[in-house]
Amino acid sequence: MLKQFKDLTDREILALAIQSEEEDGRIYGEFAHALREAYPSTAQMFEEMREEEAGHRDRLFAMYRERFGDHIPLIRRENVKGFLQRRPIWLMRPLGVKVARKQAKIMEMEAVRFYQRAADRTSHAATRELLNKLADEEWKHTETAGELEKKHLTESAKAQEAESHKKLFLLQIVQPGLAGLMDGSVSTLAPLFAAAYATHRTWEAFLVGMAASVGAGISMAFAEGLSDDGSLTGRGSPVVRGIATGLMTTAGGLGHTMPFLIENFHVAMIVAVFIVALELAAISYVRHKYMDTPFLQAAFQVVVGGVLVFLTGILIGSS
Hints:
This protein is mainly alpha-helical. It folds into two domains: about 5-155, Ferritin, core subunit, four-helix bundle (Ferritin, Up-down Bundle); about 160-319, no CATH class. About 75% of the residues lie in helices and about 0% in strands. Helix 7 (about 200-225) runs antiparallel to helix 8. The longest helix is centred in the middle third of the chain and has 33 residues, at about 155-185. It is elongated. The model has no long low-confidence stretch (mean pLDDT about 80).
C-alpha cells in the first residue's frame, strides 16, 4: 500500500528528499548522455543541472546525518501517494530534445511542491529552513534552465542542433516514409495494370490494387519495424518507422488504385496514368528536397523504374 504524505516522519521526509534528488540527478545525467552526440549544448545544460541536484543531495545528507545518523531508510516517490508516475528513461529511447526539456520542467515543478509541503510538515527549525531554501532553489530552476539555455544554446549551437534535428527527422520519418511511398507507388503498378488489361473491368482491377496496396503496406511496416530497434543506428522507434513506412506504402498504392472506381475503363486508365505521373514526380521532389539528390537524377531514377514496372504490368495483362 502507498503511504500518505501527511503520515511521513521527519526522518522519512529527509530520506525521500535524498532519494528524489539522487534520482533527478541521474535522470539529468541520462538526458545529457542521450543528447550529447546530436545536441551537445543541451547536453551540457543538463549536465550542469545534474551537478546542482548533487549539491542538493549532499546538503540533505548532512542534515540527515546530523539528526538521525548514517542509516537511511529506503523510501521512494512511488511509495508515497501524490507523486507523478514517470516512465523509465530507457523506455524513452530514442530521447527527443523537446521531450527531455518538457520532462525537466515537470520534475522541477514537482520538486517545488514536494519541498513546500515537506517544510510545512516538519517542526524542526533547521530542517524547515533547509527545505524552504531547497523549494526556493527548485523554483528558480526554471529561470536557471533558461539562463543555462542562453549560455549554451548560442545562435551557432542552435543552428547545429537544428541541423541535427533535421538529420534525426530524416532518419526516423522521411527515409522510412519515402521508402514506403516508392515501394507502394512502384511495386503495385504491375499487378494493378496487369489485372486491368487482363479483365478490362475496373472493379476487378480496383480489388487487385487494393489488396496489393494494403498487403504491401503491412509487409513493409513489419519489415521496417523488425529491421533494427534504433538503439545503435539512431534511426528512431521501430514502431514509428514501421507505421510511417506502412502508411506511405499503402498510400502510394491506393493513389493509382482509386481511379478504378470509375466504371468507364478508358477514363479510369487515363486518370490512373495521370496519377502515376504525379506520384513519380512527388517522389522525385521529396528525394531532391530531403535526400539532397539532384532533381534530374532523382527523376530519372524514379521515372525509369516506374515506367519499367508499368510496362511490365501492361505486357503481362495484355498477353
